[in-house]
């Protein structure tokens, strides 16, 4: 099971171990973004099979994963994705991947048969060829060159230089003046400025690239970035607007000083800000770095109601209020639950009321986590068949239990067979799994009747049905 740790300053060297070699080109795959936006996204990280796994918390979507970042030649992305799937099943949620690199989208689509895909323009990164911003060469950049030439004429004493730890007072003075003229009211924009100011305090760390344009001992523009793979990811680009031409001057000088030998410069997204979008487009990005959000679903996503099924002697359908007493008796039967492999006491949430077990079954279906079929003989509740533990890759597990007074008549095997056929041929599962305790000979025979053996361990026999 993945063990997550909250992203903190002390974790940056561990994150950089992966991000420094990451070629996804998106700004979220950087230590700076994780630090700047940790109050907003609450990122936590784990390491799995040579990969970095990051879990974020969204107000709208809940838990969202980044795509795993492998160490080159070492990391096993599919094994890390398996761990993510296991964590999600353990926590009763479906996997969501929030910033999937465009080139990895197909891999996830192949892995998960049912997905919902979003590609939000607001958060696409602006990607520029490093050489373009270092030189501003060619006719298409004549506007930027003109602004730089004018800046040089107006402020001939202005120089670009790296920022060091000793410049802390000048950096703080810059922020004080910038805050006085900052006039954006959006909460996200204010958070960005506040977070950028905190991030600038990391100047001097080995992973930080920082520079400023200085005029007469005063900083009038500052930038901060980090190198991730072949990309310079720019986290901070701020200038005092009263100095005409300071922004293109800073962009070019910072790129020339820090992007040598790199292919790309990522100037991050515009978050829908009109001014930022206009400005970033004027620098002619080579492409927009799409951040595809993939919400994984299972086969239940398209099932609105539990369908009625019929076998030779039985019917299977949804649990009803009339089943409450018999269903409670089944769920509370410790002898049955011993073979069922489940103790309700371990997962009990809240008070054990008369409606508790019915409510759990209905919640699990509404959440697309499970289907609880009532097994009926002549319309009377005698047990349940449960399809659960969906792996989001076309597989799920099927279990069955019968009230003690109806045991020994083959009802469990008949209901299991019918539910298995529906799961594979109507619901569309690729693989159906089952297991039983080795001491439970009756269950072994039931599973063997419609599934093939799939291994064993010290405790269980395993079975599966595939198509």
Structure overview:
The chain has 467 residues and is of the alpha+beta class. The protein folds into three domains: 5-124 and 293-297, Gcn5-related N-acetyltransferase (GNAT) (Aminopeptidase, 3-Layer(aba) Sandwich), CATH 3.40.630.30; 125-268, Gcn5-related N-acetyltransferase (GNAT) (Aminopeptidase); 299-466, Aminopeptidase (3-Layer(aba) Sandwich), CATH 3.40.630. It is 34% helix and 28% strand. It is built from 16 helices and 23 strands. The protein has helices at residues 12-19, 31-36, 38-41, 77-90, 105-111, 130-135, 142-154, 168-181, 187-199, 246-258, 274-282, 324-331, 334-340, 356-366, 411-426, 441-450; strands at residues 5-6, 44-48, 51-58, 62-65, 69-70, 96-101, 114-119, 125-129, 159-162, 209-215, 218-228, 231-239, 264-266, 287-289, 291-297, 309-310, 314-318, 371-377, 380-388, 395-402, 431-437, 452-456, 460-466. Strands 16-17-18-19-20-21-23-22 form an eight-stranded mixed beta sheet, sandwiched between helices. The protein has a seven-stranded mixed beta sheet with strand order 9-10-11-12-13-8-14, sandwiched between helices. Helix 15 packs parallel to helix 16 (441-450). It is elongated, with a radius of gyration of 29 Å. The protein starts with a strand and ends with a strand.
Specify the overall morphology. Answer: elongated
CATH class of the largest domain: Alpha Beta
Query: Strand order, biggest sheet?
Result: 16-17-18-19-20-21-23-22
**Structural class estimated from helices and strands:** alpha+beta
The CATH architecture designation of the largest domain is 3-Layer(aba) Sandwich
Residue fraction in strands: 25-35%
CATH domain fold name of the largest domain? Aminopeptidase
**Mean pLDDT figure:** 93
Instruction: Give me the count of strands.
Output: 23
* Main sheet summary: 8 strands, mixed
Note the total helix count.
16
Low-pLDDT residue spans: none
Taking the alpha carbons of the first and last residues, their distance comes to 29 Å
């Amino acid at each position: 099971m993945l063990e997550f740790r909250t992203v903190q300053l002390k974790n940056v060297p561990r994150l950089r171990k992966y991000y420094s070699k990451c070629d996804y080109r998106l700004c979220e795959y950087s230590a700076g973004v994780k630090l700047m936006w940790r109050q907003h996204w609450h990122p936590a990280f784990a390491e799995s099979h040579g990969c970095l796994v990051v879990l974020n918390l969204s107000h709208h979507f809940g838990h969202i994963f980044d795509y795993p970042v492998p160490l080159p030649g070492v990391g096993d992305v599919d094994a890390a994705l398996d761990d993510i799937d296991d964590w999600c099943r353990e926590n009763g949620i479906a996997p969501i991947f929030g910033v999937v690199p465009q080139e990895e989208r197909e891999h996830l689509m192949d892995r998960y048969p049912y997905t919902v895909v979003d590609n939000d323009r607001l958060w696409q990164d602006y990607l520029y060829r490093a050489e373009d911003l270092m030189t501003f060469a060619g006719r298409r950049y004549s506007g930027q060159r003109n602004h730089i030439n004018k800046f040089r004429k107006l402020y001939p004493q202005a120089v670009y230089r790296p920022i060091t730890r000793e410049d802390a007072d000048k950096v703080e003075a810059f922020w004080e003046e910038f805050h006085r003229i900052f006039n954006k009211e959006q909460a996200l924009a204010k958070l960005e400025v506040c977070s950028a100011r905190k991030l600038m305090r990391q100047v001097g760390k080995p992973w930080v690239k920082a520079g400023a344009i200085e005029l007469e001992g005063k900083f009038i523009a500052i930038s901060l970035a980090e190198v991730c793979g072949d990309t310079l990811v720019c986290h901070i680009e701020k200038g005092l607007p009263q100095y005409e031409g300071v922004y293109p001057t800073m962009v070019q000088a910072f790129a020339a000083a820090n992007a040598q030998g790199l292919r790309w410069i990522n100037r991050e997204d515009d978050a829908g800000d009109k001014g930022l979008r206009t400005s970033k487009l004027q620098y002619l990005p080579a492409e927009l770095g799409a951040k595809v959000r993939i919400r994984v679903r299972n086969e239940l996503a398209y099932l609105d109601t539990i369908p009625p099924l019929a076998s030779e002697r039985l019917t299977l359908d949804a649990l009803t209020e009339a089943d409450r007493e018999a269903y409670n008796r089944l769920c509370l039967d410790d002898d049955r639950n011993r073979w069922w492999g489940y103790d309700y006491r371990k997962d009990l949430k809240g008070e054990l009321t008369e409606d508790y077990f019915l409510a759990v079954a209905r919640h699990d279906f509404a959440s697309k986590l499970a289907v609880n079929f009532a097994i009926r003989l002549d319309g009377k509740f005698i047990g349940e068949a449960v399809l659960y533990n969906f792996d989001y890759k076309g597989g799920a597990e099927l279990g069955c239990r019968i009230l003690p007074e109806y045991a020994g008549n083959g009802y469990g095997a008949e209901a299991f067979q019918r539910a298995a056929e529906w799961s594979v041929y109507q619901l569309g599962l690729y693989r159906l799994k089952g297991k039983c305790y080795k001491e439970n000979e009756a269950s072994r025979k039931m599973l063997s009747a419609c599934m093939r053996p799939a291994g064993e361990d010290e405790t269980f026999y395993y079975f599966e049905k595939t198509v």
